[in-house]
């Protein structure tokens, strides 16, 4: 198919591909409401909660936008495990990882391992069979469920989908392993909303002490180098960010990446650090990415899984750390 999405897909090395079939797969971003311009044969809503508070005044504003998107789709598939979708936008059909018995597509007996995720797929009253996704994490299996539901709606035979699942690789900046530096594992991840951060941390925890993970070494701790993205998001979710990040063994906190926004008084990484500390988290503040790279060895140890997390320039950190090794030594 022709593909236009946000992330870099490993099997064609980009975020766009001109295909030769009659299907176009497009990622519609709700951030500015422009997704209502799509007229889709099949629309998919993976989950729903408030974000992009620079555009949406409240959750009802977001729900109205998503409802308009849904009306423009011939078939709307939604996540039955998402409370807001189940209540307000159930769509034509739903999928579920076992929590919603009324969902048409059900993925039962799910197993979340250090290097893979597994489930048994049901469509209506039929058991289609098992699938194995070579990626850990519940959120990855939920995304697979959405993709499989759409593929089955298009009439693609399930055995072909089973085979294709085994070849799936994560897009760029989605728990992307970068390198090992003196026994420290550097991973780049795009998570910048509290729920995304929580999902990535849960995935990382599956790998701690697990010698069957996708990583080349067995991690012992999870350290998050976090760069908040947008002042508006940081302000709205400050306490939730604090509680979520406090679950890491250590947090290296960077200044807010503005993404073009003007600063908001008292909304900064120092304020967030105080909230993390109040939530019993271990946190250190830094002035810049270069500052983190220079102090890298002071706050990390061999066996650490270090997540460079955020949607701004944080993906530069692994390279800066490697460049700073002679200085640290």
From TrEMBL:
Signal peptide: none annotated. Residues 25-151 form the Mur ligase central domain. Gene3D superfamilies: Mur ligase, C-terminal domain, Mur-like, catalytic domain. One of its GO terms (molecular function) is ATP binding. Pfam families: Mur_ligase_C (PF02875), Mur_ligase_M (PF08245). It comes from the Bacteria. InterPro entries: Mur-like_cat_sf, Mur_ligase_C, Mur_ligase_C_dom_sf, Mur_ligase_cen, MurCDEF_pg_biosynth. Residues 173-312 form the Mur ligase C-terminal domain. SUPFAM superfamilies: MurD-like peptide ligases, catalytic domain, MurD-like peptide ligases, peptide-binding domain. PANTHER family: UDP-N-ACETYLMURAMATE--L-ALANINE LIGASE (PTHR43445:SF3), UDP-N-ACETYLMURAMATE--L-ALANINE LIGASE-RELATED (PTHR43445). This is UDP-N-acetylmuramate--L-alanine ligase. It comes from Candidatus Synechococcus spongiarum 142.
């Amino acid at each position: 198919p022709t593909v236009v999405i946000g992330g870099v897909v490993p099997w064609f090395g980009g975020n766009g591909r001109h295909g030769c079939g009659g299907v176009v797969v497009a990622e519609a971003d709700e951030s500015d409401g422009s997704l209502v311009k799509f007229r889709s044969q099949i629309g998919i809503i993976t989950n729903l909660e408030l974000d992009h508070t620079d555009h949406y005044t409240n959750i009802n504003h977001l729900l109205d936008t998503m409802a308009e998107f849904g009306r423009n789709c011939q078939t709307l598939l939604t996540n039955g495990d998402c409370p807001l979708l189940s209540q307000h936008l159930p769509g034509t059909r739903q999928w579920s990882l076992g929590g919603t018995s009324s969902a048409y597509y059900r993925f039962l007996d799910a197993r979340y391992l250090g290097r893979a995720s597994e489930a048994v797929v049901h469509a209506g009253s039929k058991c289609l069979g098992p699938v194995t996704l070579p990626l850990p994490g519940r959120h990855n299996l939920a995304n697979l469920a959405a993709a499989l539901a759409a593929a089955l709606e298009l009439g693609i035979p399930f055995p072909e989908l089973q085979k294709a699942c085994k070849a799936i690789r994560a897009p760029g900046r989605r728990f992307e392993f970068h390198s090992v530096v003196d026994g420290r594992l550097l991973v780049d991840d795009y998570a910048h909303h509290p729920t995304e951060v929580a999902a990535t941390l849960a995935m990382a925890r599956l790998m701690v002490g697990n010698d069957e993970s996708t990583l080349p070494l067995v991690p012992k701790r999870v350290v998050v180098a976090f760069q908040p993205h947008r002042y508006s998001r940081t302000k709205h979710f400050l306490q939730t960010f604090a509680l979520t990040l406090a679950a890491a063994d250590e947090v290296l906190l960077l200044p807010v990446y503005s993404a073009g926004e003007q600063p908001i008084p008292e909304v900064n990484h120092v304020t967030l650090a105080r909230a993390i500390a109040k939530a019993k988290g271990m946190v250190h503040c830094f002035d810049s990415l270069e500052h983190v790279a220079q102090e890298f060895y002071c706050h990390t140890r061999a066996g650490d899984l270090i997540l460079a997390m955020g949607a701004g320039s944080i993906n530069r950190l692994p390279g800066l750390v490697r460049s700073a090794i002679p200085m640290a030594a």
